[in-house]
Amino acid sequence: MELKSELFKQRLEKLEILREKGLDPFPHTFSRTHLSADILEESNGLMASEQQVRVAGRMISVRGHGKSCFAHILDGAGKIQIYLRQEEVGEELFTIFRLLDVGDIIGVWGPVFRTKTGEVTVHVQGYSLLAKALRTLPEKWHGLRDKEIRYRQRYLDLIANEQVRELFKLRTRIIRSVRRFLDDRDFLEVETPILQPIYGGAFAEPFVTLHKALGMKLFLRIADELYLKRLIVGGFDRIYELSKNFRNEGIDRNHNPEFTLLELYQAYADYGDIMNLVEEMISGVGQEVIGSRQVQYGDHLIDWTPPWRRISFFEALAQGIGQDVSQWDEDKLKNLMVHRQMEVREGAGRGRLWEALFDAVVEPELIQPTFVIDYPLESSPLAKRHREQPNLVERFELFAAGKELANAFTELNDPVDQRKRFQEQAKLRRAGDDQAQMVDEDFLRALEYGMPPTGGLGVGIDRVVMLLANASSIRDVILFPHMRTEKP
Questions:
Q1: C-alpha closest to that of 273 among 126, 430, 411
Q2: CATH no., domain 2-136
Q3: What residues does 120 pair with on adjacent strands?
Q4: Which pLDDT value is given to residue 3?
Q5: In the predicted model, what is the mean pLDDT of residues 377-392?
Q6: Is the pTM of this model over 0.85?
Q7: CA–CA separation, 386 and 384 (whole Å)
Q8: Model confidence at 142, in pLDDT bands (50, 70, 90)?
């Protein structure tokens, strides 16, 4: 075990030596004046003024030259070189510095100069040990590549890989840009319950927990939809929530059980208005944070410049399969799926079968941003019927790079129709489809008070970040993705 390794024992011994010398290896604070990037940017002025700087970070390299040492320290803005000489810091402090290791966190102070090779360097007049690292960094921590270690021990990944730190800064800028876009258009950010007595708003299995005091079963939300639409009933016209949602499903490149979802609702709008909104939002966010509406993703150059392609669900499915299946019954659809060696979910109705075929055949081919519109009624229990084709609903999904990014409806606001749809879902649950939606009586009661015409949207933020950051796996854009239990 690593805890019993010789290197670990050596570092523990050094820790005790430092304490015996009267040093606190874990002081409470350090006052710094600059980050590494500030020093590099202001180096000419700092050198001209001979101003002392105070900088702190993790020591990532050290090399001795007799009675002097060079080292690099890494902080949140980058890295910078430091230089110590025994005659300037004193023999005792210089000797103590020799007890420090790569990985230790230190604070230093002194003026800035440029070495003969031209590297901006802090000429150390004094230093403090701020945290003694008892574990050694991995042998090849510069450019750590082992994904198991990177995902499981993200702290090492962030230390080792500058591009990973930059990716998560990019993620923050993307979310900040989305918020700014919506705030500027008078959307109100709200919060809805994570623990729900009835889950709904999506086809998914929930995580289940127990509230002891109330003696009741609760579910981690799979979507925010039904609560947000209650707020539309309550009189808020434009609302959004950036939330964590939880679905008890498999893990792959595009799915993590815990993920970030943007849901928004706009009263007196339909799915056409929402299409225009999401088109403007994602293209604008890309322009703001990347500096371009054209973004490289894998082998593809994705062009987010509006307008995006629009195609109906059954037209896209017919193109993918080679024949029109819009009038097929369940048996015929199941036979096609078996022929294609696809899994057929127990109790699935026509809507779920059509969508399974679409996901397998059509979705991977949708590389450039594409709105797939007008879905079958059977697969969309929360969407309003199409105003011209009553067997369809006014719904779109957004795809790019072979991934679903967003799902949106002209929201169903007829409480009688909504009750019938929920009842149809209940039949599917009894037939064995455990992902069919549940009847939510309180939501139906809210609709009975009247909800205005509304357009709604859900956007998978993690997948948007993937595409803008050129990340091949959702685990690359989630700081702490879910992993199997670590083997001892």
A1: 411
A2: 2.40.50.140
A3: 114
A4: 45
A5: 93
A6: yes
A7: 6
A8: low
